[in-house]
Amino acid sequence: MAEAAGAARPEECPGTDSAQAGRAAACQGCPNQGLCAAGAAGPDPAEAAELRARLRAVRHTVLVLSGKGGVGKSTFSAALAHGLAADEDKQVALLDIDICGPSIPKMMGLEGEQVHQSGSGWSPVYVEENLGVMSVGFLLSSPDDAVIWRGPKKNGLIKQFLRDVDWGEIDYLIVDTPPGTSDEHLSIVQYLSATHIDGAVIVTTPQEISLQDVRKEINFCHKVKLPIIGVVENMSGFVCPKCKKESQIFPPTTGGAEKMCQNLNISLLGKVPLDPQIGKSCDRGQSFLSEAPESPATLSYRNIIQRIQEYCEQRHSREEKNI
Amino acid sequence: NLLGVRHILLVLSGKGGVGKSTICTELALALRHCGHRVGILDVDLCGPSIPRMLRVQDRAVHQCDSGWVPVFVGQDRGIALMSIGFLLERPDDAVVWRGPKKNALIKQFVTDVAWGDLDFLIVDTPPGTSDEHISTVEALRHYKLLGAILVTTPQ
After folding, report:
1. Does the keyword GTP-binding apply (chain B) (predicted)?
2. CATH of domain B5-151
3. Which residue of A82, A193, B33, B132 has the fewest CB atoms within a 10 Å radius of its CB?
């Protein structure tokens, strides 16, 4: 299989758009088999209609992605949710599809909360009146319970999150994802194709080991035709509160996100410096933006959030013009 | 292919970005420094970090009669490494695979790599408790699984 990853398509390739894509006998061992099969296994028309109906009242959807783990996706998703919900006229929903490592309940101060069922479906757990959250974390009897599920079961839950949660009318649906380019990512893109996704925000840290995985995620976005709103570089420098000297804790040995974005012609939404208060706020379930309003990191977050809002609003008005 | 391996160690964490791959690499180098024969099996299929950490990201794997030949690192070829990183045509290629395809490759990585005689085989895993982890443990069940090292950060 050493040559498989880069091999040409098999001789009897059914065609990547065919209903047999990924499923024909000739597909076995083809490097694109997984991608073709995944595409062919999208929601069936009845399911797609169901999802479309449920998500009809969602104005904007933003996916928060990274190839790399531990770069601050959930931290950023939480900050984005709080930032958008600061406008009380906006209804914000935060959906956590990291099934194995759901961080959002703790970060939003909602650990121990349970999901309630009503006639109209599952109720999200509300942090504020205008900020609702859903996560597998709310379905566990203990926060230490491991969710040891293979792909298909994870996909099933993600579908339920979209189909069975009574989100109501939402201005912004933010989806926090686990690291990687696998089941969860393919599924959320497929299920949300029933509605629309404004784009993805990709999170990284400055070092090449992160960028390496993030470039893969960017390629994933291109493959599934997911627009990229831009890249956020977390843990970008540390300013000592005592001596004010700046240190690069994770040195950008290959130019950091800035160079990568230049090379790939993608927008760098902003750089967020390391602030120990961020980790503390996450552990305590508090909004970092509220706890440390004067922090340079807060300023960065707010600028980035504004850029994301502008992107979504511009897309919306462009689409309205096209109708 | 694993019969010549004396001990197998899994490096795990629920959480991403805590330093699993870093610890795997440092552990392998330290054990090698002590004179042991060491291998690293990188089953992080979506985000393989070990090749770059050992500066062998431009190498390729070859086949032999017993399966794949791992990449040997360093002048003394002291560490044997297998990673999906070596199978990608381009380093930025995304491995966009669902569980079943990941499981199939992990099984191949366990049974079809000609490790030879090793004192330690260190297995680097991705974050989570899903396909890769279940498949790796299942595939290694009959071998000398020493145990798991769990990596975390303080928060």
Report:
1. no
2. 3.40.50.300
3. B33
Give the distance from residue B43's alpha carbon to the nearest chain A alpha carbon, in angstroms. Answer: 13
Q: Do A70 and B134 make contact, defined as CB atoms within 8 angstroms?
A: no
Residue of B nearest to A3 (CA): B87
Interface predicted TM-score of the whole assembly (ipTM), two decimals: 0.90
What is the CATH architecture assignment of A58-321?
3-Layer(aba) Sandwich (3.40)
Query: Sheet of A131-135: strands edge to edge?
Result: A125-128, A131-135, A92-96, A170-176, A58-65, A199-204, A228-233, A268-271
Q: Which residue stretches of chain A have pLDDT < 50? A: 1-8, 17, 39-41
Model confidence pLDDT, tens digit, residues B33-64: 999 999 999 999 999 999 999 999 999 999 99
Looking at the partner chain, which of B96, B98, B134 has a beta carbon nearest the beta carbon of A223?
Answer: B96
Residue A274: DSSP 8-state: B
Q: CA A276, A282, A286, A288 torsion: positive or negative? A: positive
The partner residue sitting opposite B96, judged by closest CB among A154, A210, A220, is A220
What are the DSSP calls for B24-62, one per residue?
Answer: HHHHHHHHHHTT--EEEEE--SSS--HHHHTT-TT---E
- The alpha carbon of residue B36 is apart from the nearest alpha carbon of chain A, in Å, by 27
Q: Output phi, psi for A18, to 5 deg.
A: -70, 155
Nearest chain A Cα distance for residue B61, angstroms = 6
Residue located via tokens 């689409």: A319
The per-residue pLDDT for A21 is: 60
Q: Using alpha carbons, select from B24, B127, B131, B153 the residue that is nearest to residue B79.
A: B24
What does the domain layout of chain B look like in residue ranges? Answer: 5-151
Where do the structural domains in chain A lie, given as residue ranges? 58-321
